[in-house]
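Bench notes, afternoon.
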Amino acid sequence: MLNLGIELGSTRIKAVLIDSEKNYNTVAAGWFNWENRLENGFWTYSLESALDGVREAYAQLVKNYKTETGNSLTGINSIGISAMMHGYIPFDKNGNLLTAFRTWRNTTTEKSATILTQLFDFNIPQRWSVAHLYQAILNKEAHVPQIDFLTTLAGYVHWQLTGEMVLGVGDASGMFPVDCEGGNLSYDKVKQNKFKELTGLRVEEILPKILNAGEYAGKLTDKGAKILDPSGELKAGIPFCPPEGDAGTGMVATNSVAPRTGNISAGTSIFAMLVMEKPLSKVYTEIDIVTTPTGKPVAMVHCNSCTSDIDAWIQLFGEAAELMGADFDRNVLYEKLYLKALDGAKDGGGMINYNFYSGEPVAGIADGCPLFFRKPESKMNLANFMRVQLYSAMATLKLGMALLEKEGVVVDFLLGHGGLFKVKGVGQKLIASALNTPIDVMDSAGDGGAWGIALLSAFAVASENSKKQKNPEKAITLEDFLMNNVFSNNSASRENPNPSDVVGFESFMERYTKALPVVINASAYNLLHSGEYVLT
């Protein structure tokens, strides 16, 4: 029984095929590389390229399946779609896109996010869909009266493949606050009414229907089959699970869906998800409150920048090596430079780096402004430089996690996945000391969110089958499915905090925090001279 998961990430669209007969291991994979673009002041991707990328990733998966198994791919049991959360994709009643896709990376909604946070007494980050919607209203954008349907990237692709305008609760919770009391999933009615009083708009009428993990969310249509596989080999009728955001699929891929569990996803962005036992005592603008794919409350610390600045520096070092005639593998270059960071001074040698490729609300940064600087007496060498680059990738997360620590949000350890953990032991070791928390990395989570959404699609089938038994009220839960069917034989490597590294990172953070006003001013200067910032 083969299950397909497709995730549209920041730099790669990945398709993963898993086998439910063998602990849901990956059987074959395919991918398509893509990049966001800054157009007319907004970070965006074209929706045409999203569908092209899904098709290309699937075609490569089919080819690789044939190569690796010697068989043609003749049947798929279930399908799931996942993608970057949040953002703004509005359509009119005829299904026409009204604006270019505005992604999570945009920090253009500060005014609306501030007003809504105060109105709801609930944190609405700038990247949330409702913040983009209200900002468009404040800006008097001409398309607003024409909006008939608003969704996320996962919701859009799912809609194109199934015809269903639905969303998993985890992804929906990043569009508009949800109410999961008593297992009755819905957008928060009190906040709906407040939004209607503010804007005159009944937001619930334009948002996707919310579904829970384990429910079916439509079937592959003839149109969807042609989008995925123009050859005609793939047939319509395959059931789908609810589309989910990358945060939810990351939780599933790391078995972090029960209270006191948590995970860190570290790639283009970095975020931590901690499943809470009780609500926070107050609203924090640095912390999102979202949900697991089954509606459990989650504290999310999301930072917009992580590995992009590291990638840029390694690209520069690669150019220098090529200038000297070196012939090398880029993956080996990454590995050697990451490992070199472990030789650096515990505090980074007195240097500071800020990796802000876009605005960073957690740190008060309005616009992208990467900066590296040092004092004359700082110890400038490659090991220290790379250590500071890696420290910078996790520093903003540390700012948000400190607030959760004060709130008494407890996890026994965190599970890590994403590009920062690819070089074994490096990112894992440093972030364990940065957060002073044990970090586990599972071998099975190597395919990340694509694997996670494939698991959710398999769970939908298992859940439907269990409901047909004599006691449907005892239907299998997601927690039981993951623990007993997927992760029962899974091993993880663990890095515990190193006391000297903990002290070194604290010293780095002291410098990092003190110098933040420099970056805030530089970011404001960038906006001022781009014509997008007005001093008042």
